Amino acid sequence: MMKDMTEGSPLKIILWFSLPLLIGNIFQQIYSLSDIIIVGNYLGVHSLAAVGAMTPVFLVMVFTITGFANGLCIITAQRFGAKDERGVRKSFAVGLILSFLFSFICSFSLLHEMPSILVEMQVPQEILLESEQFMRFLAYALLATVFYNYLSGVMRALGDSKTPLYFLIFSCVLNIILNLYFITVLNMGVAGSGLGTGVAQSFSVFLCIIYMLWKFPILKLKKEDFKWNGSFVMQHLKIAFPMAIQFSILGLGVLIIQRSCNSFGPETIAAFTAALRIEQLGTLPMVSFGLAMTTFAAQNYGAKLIRRIRQGVLQCSLMSLIYSIIAAVVVYSLGSSLVSVFLSDPEPEVVQMAQTYLKITTLFYCFLGQIFIFRQTLQGMGRALLPLLAGIVELVMRAFAAIFLAAGLGYIGICYASPIAWIGAALVVSIGYFVVIRRYKITLFQK
């Protein structure tokens, strides 16, 4: 069901819109966590390390895809907020074409550069073959990944955050079933995990297409909607490309840290993989608030309701701050217990390293939460360069910590990489937001 976010209480709208996103993000994590849990419990630490060693590479591609798809959908949301149905259809048509081209480029690039990537990531020789098998199956699944992210993004742009959740839940359950079948019955090893993920994602794309043709008459395309309009295409690309780069930078930051971890051996890789997954689960509500702000800001920007955007940012920022404190306390307290979920018989050293990472990073969750709010708001307003700048700052700081601090402090240096990067990025996007919003000369409580 489509939802107009230009009317009603901003806090109430953002909160209710973000709840399905939160549940969806939880299931998205379960989607990938099931791979880790099944591999770790049925195939052992080395297989878990094989998956963990290359997962950041795939995450770079997924982050890039997500950024590109979300960028395309911002124009759609703005046109919907402006009550421009023809503009919505034309934006959808442009997005479909660009998504297909982008998915082909991503898949081909990953497959072509696979040998070089394995060498550059310093994957230990004993897990090299398993890592390559896992990644090749995921590379073929990128087409489905691109289209799921784009189609679900379009539904969210039109105010529907519930339907993508339903399809994701179905796909998540299917993914678990297929992974268990491919790994435990067909004995495919880590390759079975990659294949299961690809098949499940393809099903979610199919469901999105069927539902959108049935329930969204505004998206029923006509021949003229595909008519080439260079300036309109560039409007999409001017947002989509910077967002793709910015999201890829986030993935590259994780990849740099993972590369440092890989040099410490399988146990450190397993510990970092488990800790990172726990962190991702703990910060999901903050991610959901940010995603909700993208659609909220885009629709209201299209309707020229700047004061309403300011109100939404203030209320959502306070809500995110409160949650970040709660999440830090919970993850800090239960981190060691959660590690055992990923391994059937974790070694004390692995648990200790994972817990060390969590105890350091939880203290800086408040900065991460504000990044999501300000960055996504700027993107929803079509301001893609400031978030890109913040991403570059984040990458530089993360790389500095991962390379130089890791060299001097070892694993502890790696643990401080993310907090340092969060502080830098939070300063850039928060200052950037206030500079941009003041240019409109509309006060927060102006009538």
List strands and helices in order, with pairings.
Layout (H helix, E strand, L loop, with lengths): L9 H33 L2 H37 L3 H28 L1 H7 L7 H13 L1 H16 L5 H23 L4 H26 L14 H33 L3 H17 L1 H19 L3 H34 L8 H14 L3 H16 L4 H25 L1 H5 L1 H22 L9
Helix pairs in contact: 1-2, 1-7, 1-8, 1-10, 1-11, 1-12, 2-3, 2-5, 2-6, 2-9, 2-10, 2-11, 3-6, 5-8, 6-8, 7-8, 9-15, 10-12, 10-13, 11-12, 11-14, 12-13, 12-14, 14-17, 15-17
SS summary, helix count: 17
Please trace the helix and strand order, writing H or E for each element.
Answer: HHHHHHHHHHHHHHHHH
The portion of residues assigned to helices is: over 70%
Give the rounded overall mean pLDDT: 80
- Could you say how many structural domains there are in total? 1
Query: What structural class do the secondary elements suggest?
Result: mainly alpha
Largest sheet: none
| Low-confidence region ranges | none
How far from one another are the termini? 31 Å
Number of strands: 0
Approximately what portion of the residues adopt beta-strand conformation? under 5%
State Rg. Answer: 21 Å
Chain oligomer state:
single chain
* Inertia-based shape: globular
Keywords:
447 residues; mainly alpha; 0% strand; globular
Can you walk me through this structure?
The protein is an all-alpha fold. It has one domain (10-438). Helices cover 82% and strands 0% of the residues. Helix 1 (10-42) packs antiparallel against helix 2, helix 10 (266-282) packs across helix 13 and helix 12 (306-339) runs antiparallel to helix 14. It is globular. 57% of the residues are buried. The mean pLDDT is 80.
